[in-house]
Write a structure and sequence with these properties.
Chain lengths: 264, 394
């Protein structure tokens, strides 16, 4: 995996110089007020970072928030956006930026991906699908795609403040973050909340770096790596192509079912 | 156009929904719908159900609302052609690939965008309008001001959920089920993991289960801001639940339209709905962001009741033939409500078998008995335990 194709979702500004030294040149900053689940950065922080970057807006927005986005003046180092809400397309489409569609969990077949590529410059492929499905989509996509290769997957996005509600109900101190488990089903999730809702993450590190080697890299725009919740040393090992401990390939090698009778 | 929209998990539920005041029904075929483990409708049943509904002036919308994987695309075109042939009034869609297939093959079907697309703003609604949607089923998180603005700016038909279970997540943005059980939430296999009880790192119980939605208090306002279709959740609910909920909302909507709505009707409706649902319900996101009080804690406290006593199969002015559903006896105070009859209340004075033998207790479901009634009851009306006094005009 060439380093110039890695897109790094940044959790700490102070780590930027380290990643630059490692040869990373594409960065993603979650935008304060318009993203969730991650560290957030305002436009001044993004400008001061002085690196070519994309901006993540992974919330579903209200109409007045779309209006606000349309009026924002973005720093010169911003190349484009990765967005969850289709409505943002109208706010940004005439402003000469690249716009990638995120839509977590929804881009699961080649025809849907190609539909969105008529409007967007790229699409972030779902990480809930099998290797065969990924190969099919990448080979048939009309534009290069963004492929997630390293992250703790965000597996639910709620508008509700689930951690605060829980803390309020049991009169617990406010933390905005919480680990939860269900032992019988061997479930281990963690929750991260901001004023716009709650993101739930799987507590197993998804690592698809080796799995995507066989894909046609010409049709991969970026290999997406998320640095949130990861030690800098682990990110270093990931960028350098070294093995990581305790990772999973998730649904890449495990197909989901939807009729109870199909469960094995 | 104001429409009361009911779920139907099978043909029996569809018939009761039509009888009890639904203007339109939504249901799923055997494929491509988000209730993969419900009974659902075979193609033959879809055809006959649509014919039946149309014969009495009702519409039928068919769910084609899974998030498609490559393997699911097989047979989609043929299924859509079939739905067009049998004159489905619309399909409910979340994945735009369905719209692509319709257009490519010039298949004539009205498209409603599913709540799975989680549309929360005017621009997203406009996007779907431009690609061919006639109606948007708004995200359940859309509040009053947002609904109003979307209506004013798009002039799309707007459909809003008014009753039933809520997702904890923004619809479509949840794969808890996939990760916990390998059952694909966005292809109809949701295991409702958000209803489970978890433990936090300190071994406290953690829950995230929202209370049910109930919009009775807001129906008039929703009509005034332009909502067209009022949708009830629950394709797998019982005929008694469907009949009671539809009967209540039909009454409220008609009173709004006729400018006759009074607070006593709303209070009565709230009592009736909360009783039939066996659990508390609230208006969720419409006016304020739901907090701790809008969640269930310590599990969803459902107190099962046996309120549904029997189904009226036929009736004269003084005797009704009843199919027994739950225990009742001579001396019980009961109520009978029906699609268009005024609800009546009386004490059961006499029960006889079909052989004219007097009996004092009915405790075998599906038995057929005769009971004395104060007036003729409608066929398919329902006898229930008296819990609340009848509200006049309901």
């Amino acid at each position: 995996m060439k380093k110039d194709k890695i897109l790094l979702n940044i959790s700490k500004i102070e780590d930027l110089s380290y990643y630059l030294k490692l040869g990373i040149s594409n960065f993603l900053f979650p935008l304060k007020g318009y993203s969730m689940g991650y560290s957030e950065f305002d436009l001044e922080e993004i400008a001061n970072a002085k690196v070519r970057c994309y901006v993540l807006l992974n919330r579903l927005l209200k109409s007045e928030e779309i209006d606000e986005v349309a009026k924002l003046e973005f720093p010169e180092n911003v190349l484009g956006f990765i967005v969850e809400d289709v409505g943002i397309y109208y706010a940004l489409k005439d402003r000469n930026y690249e716009i990638f569609l995120y839509q977590n969990h929804l881009n699961n077949n080649f025809r849907t991906v190609n539909f969105w590529l008529k409007y967007f410059d790229s699409v972030v492929l779902s990480s809930d699908i099998t290797k065969e499905e990924v190969e099919s989509i990448v080979s048939k996509a009309s534009k290069p795609l963004v492929m997630k290769v390293l992250e703790y997957p965000m597996i639910m996005y709620s508008r509700r403040t689930l951690v605060s509600n829980y803390e309020h109900h049991y009169s617990l101190p406010s933390k905005k973050e919480l680990n939860i488990k269900e032992e019988k089903a061997n479930i281990d999730f963690f929750l991260k909340e901001n004023e716009y809702g709650t993101a739930v993450f799987d507590n197993h590190l998804l690592d698809l770096r080796n799995e995507v080697e066989s894909l046609n890299s010409d049709n991969i725009r970026f290999y997406y790596m998320d640095t949130h919740f990861l030690d800098k040393n682990i990110v270093f090992r990931a960028i350098e192509g070294r093995e990581l401990d305790n990772t999973t390939t998730g649904f890449f090698s495990k197909k989901t079912v939807y009729r109870i009778g199909d469960l094995k | 156009m104001i429409e009361l929209l009911s779920p139907a998990g099978d043909k029996e539920r569809l018939k009761f929904a039509c009888l009890y005041g639904a203007d339109a029904i939504y249901l799923g075929g055997k494929s491509f719908g988000l209730r993969a483990n419900a009974t659902n409708f075979t193609n033959e049943e879809l055809k006959s159900s649509i014919e039946y509904a149309h014969s009495i002036g009702k519409k039928v919308y068919v769910t084609v609302n899974i998030v498609f994987h490559d393997e699911d695309l097989e047979g989609l075109k043929e299924y859509l052609e079939f739905l067009s042939e049998i004159k489905a009034d619309a399909i409910i869609v979340s994945d735009p690939v369905v719209i692509e297939v319709l257009k490519e093959n010039s298949i004539d079907l009205e498209v409603h965008i599913s709540t799975q697309a989680s549309i929360l703003n005017e621009k997203a609604a406009l996007f779907y309008k431009e690609i061919g949607a006639k109606r948007i089923v708004l995200a359940r998180e859309a509040d009053r001001e947002e609904i109003k603005r979307i209506k004013e700016c798009t002039d799309l038909d707007l459909e809003c959920f008014i009753q039933g279970a809520m997702c904890t997540s923004m619809s479509g943005r949840c794969v808890l089920s996939n990760y916990a059980t390998n059952r694909d939430a966005n292809r109809g296999g949701c295991a409702q993991v958000c209803r489970w009880i978890f433990k936090d790192q300190d071994d406290h119980e953690f829950e995230m289960m929202p209370k049910d939605l109930n919009m009775i208090e807001n129906i008039e306002d929703m009509i005034n801001i332009g909502v067209n279709s009022f949708k009830i959740e629950g394709r797998m609910r019982s005929i008694y639940y469907i009949a009671t909920v539809l009967h209540t909302y039909r009454g409220i909507i008609d009173k709004c339209i006729n400018k006759e709505l009074k607070k006593e009707y709303i209070d009565y409706g709230l009592h009736i709905i909360n009783r039939v649902a066996n659990r508390e319900s609230v208006s969720q996101f419409y006016k304020v962001l739901p907090k701790s009080e809008e969640q269930y804690w310590n599990g969803r406290t459902e107190e099962s009741n046996q309120d549904f006593l029997g189904l009226v199969l036929s009736s004269t002015d003084s005797v009704a033939k009843i199919e027994v559903r739950n225990y009742f006896k001579v001396g019980d105070v009961v109520q009978i409500f029906g699609p268009s009859m005024k609800t009546i209340e009386f004490t059961i004075d006499k029960i006889t078998s079909l052989d004219k033998e007097e009996i004092s207790v009915c405790n075998h479901p599906k038995d057929i008995v005769l009971i004395q009634v104060p007036k003729k009851c409608e066929e398919m009306s329902m006898m229930r335990v008296k819990v609340f006094d009848i509200c006049d005009d309901f």
